[in-house]
Amino acid sequence: MPDLTKWLWLDADIKLKTVDLLPGWCLVYHQLYDVHPDKPVSVGNCPNGDYSELFKSTLLVIEHAGTASFIDVGWGPEAELSGAFYITYYRNGNLSEPVQEISTREPDDVITLVEHVMAAHCRDQSAPE
After folding, report:
1. Domain span at residue 113?
2. Quick one: which H or E segment has residue 26?
3. Residue 74, CA atoms < 13 Å, CB-side half-sphere
4. How far apart are CA 124 and CA 104, in angstroms?
5. How far is residue 91's CA from residue 12's CA, in Å, rounded to a whole number?
């Protein structure tokens, strides 16, 4: 488990994005803050208003326990505000072949896209073979 103590100062300043999990999905890791890369904010102890450290290669991981499928959300290149969020969907524990990869610079789009991927996965699992 990563050391989250360095993030505690953010609690009062910036909130985590809300994710509505569908049945079967569970939150494994969540450090996706409600911050836009193009809109500077004053954040607690960030020196000189540098909030780029909020944009990491791993921000959100959601797993579907029944199928070992998961969704990974990150930022790349890490800590570079010119980058983008990326959403990668892996099915049945196969990390070598992502089923879907999406990128966006809009934080609100990230949640919408993650929720669409979860819903599509659930539809695929319930479809007759």
Report:
1. 5-126
2. strand 25-30
3. 11
4. 24
5. 36
Classify the phi-psi angles of 10: left when phi > 0, otherwise alpha if psi is within -120 to 50, otherwise beta.
Answer: alpha
Tokens 């836009």 -> residue: 36
User: Which pTM value belongs to this model?
Assistant: 0.82
CB atoms within 10 A of CB 113: 20
How far apart are alpha carbons 88 and 78 in whole angstroms? 16
From the list 123, 111, 104, 8, the residue with the least C-alpha distance to 62 is 111
State how many domains the chain has: 1
Q: Tens place of pLDDT for every residue, the chain, 129 residues?
A: 444 444 444 445 678 899 999 999 999 999 999 888 888 766 665 555 667 878 999 999 999 988 999 999 999 999 888 999 999 999 988 888 999 999 999 999 999 999 999 999 988 877 555
Of 85, 108, 105, nearest to 34 (Cα)? 108
Taking the C-alpha atoms of residue 113 and residue 102, their distance in angstroms, rounded to an integer, is 8
